[in-house]
Design goal:
By secondary structure, the protein is an alpha/beta fold. The protein has ten helices and 15 strands. The strands form four sheets. The protein has a seven-stranded parallel β-sheet, sandwiched between helices.
């Protein structure tokens, strides 16, 4: 039986393990017994959530931790474990199911084969609202059954999560519904858990700061691949200098991705415009689309459109 590990150990001092010889209980009970120090309790068995002071992100992470231990949760059991109302737990279960992190059952939820970590928009301080809107809009530009490449970065990682959540891809009968090529280990680790998505990594040397694989091996693999759409995150954008990156190794792989892609979509918030980083990735003649937020300078966008670059301003109402 597969053992699931929760992403954050701070909330759950005792990770439970499902025993191989344990049988299913009734529908009002959990599938498996927790270990001697179950998630949500201290070594002495005291409930660590009694004060109810944590907010929705912490509560959701706590629920995922309990689910990781037990495989199944009921409304009553989760309500008691977290000392919150059953109505709150029902809303949490519905919201987590909508994010494809759990599967609803009558009176509870069961574990989904996926990462037990919250989507980025529900974590504190990871990605701004503007970046999330850019990511959501960019993810909708990727056709089903295509090959999409993503480099590393917060905006591209958020875009990858949105691709993983697209129900039109998950519901397709033909598999893979999407092929993702990436040099970012964090993106590959997350998307490989989606059974409808084929994940291809480039190999190479992984950089600890960005989780991106760089070097001759990554470039060699890229030369053998065809890419339909590239979702490209960048560090800087200027009209004269094109798009740029801080690190020369990352810029080299990004530039190679651009050359292999039929369509290049740059994802960047407006705060990066007018800033030039150390290494040029490509100029605007190689870019088809820029997805950005409502803070984009009108003159900047107008100039790009005159160069036949499609500028898409992402909002909460973007199609």
């Amino acid at each position: 039986m597969m053992q699931l590990k929760v992403a954050s150990s701070k909330l759950f001092p005792g990770d439970g393990v499902v025993e191989e010889n344990e049988s299913l209980m009734t529908s009002d009970e959990v599938v498996a017994k927790p270990s001697s120090s179950p998630a949500g309790t201290t070594e002495g068995g005291q409930n660590i959530y009694m004060d109810g002071s944590f907010g929705r992100p912490q509560r959701w992470q706590a629920l995922l931790g309990l689910l990781s231990d037990r495989g199944q949760l009921t409304v009553a059991g989760a309500s008691e474990a977290l000392s919150v109302s059953p109505a709150t737990i029902r809303r949490d279960f519905t919201a987590l199911a909508a994010q494809q992190l759990v599967t609803r059952t009558h009176g509870g939820v069961v574990a989904t084969a996926g990462a037990y970590d919250l989507p980025v928009q529900y974590r504190d301080g990871d990605v701004s609202r503007a970046k999330q809107q850019v990511a959501t809009t960019a993810s909708r530009l990727v056709p089903a059954c295509s090959v999409v490449a993503l480099n590393g970065g917060t905006t591209t990682s958020a875009t990858a999560r949105q691709l993983g959540l697209r129900s039109d891809l998950a519901d397709r009968a033909d598999r893979p519904a999407l092929t993702v090529v990436t040099n970012a280990l964090n993106i590959a680790t997350e998307l490989v858990l989606r059974p409808h998505i084929r994940t291809v990594t480039l190999g190479g040397v992984a950089r600890p700061n960005s989780y991106e694989q760089v070097g001759p091996l990554a470039k060699l693999v890229l030369q053998e691949l065809w890419i339909d759409v590239l979702i490209l995150g960048v560090d800087g954008l200027t009209l004269r200098g094109g798009v740029s990156a801080h690190h020369d190794g990352e810029a080299e792989i990004n530039s190679a991705m651009v050359k292999r892609a039929e369509r290049v979509v740059v994802v960047a918030t407006s705060e990066k415009m007018g800033h030039r980083s150390l290494v040029r990735v490509c100029d605007w003649s190689q870019i088809d689309t820029l997805v950005t937020d409502s803070g984009v300078d009108d003159a900047f966008a107008r100039e790009l459109r005159s160069w036949e670059v499609d500028v898409i301003v992402a909002t909460s109402n973007s199609p």
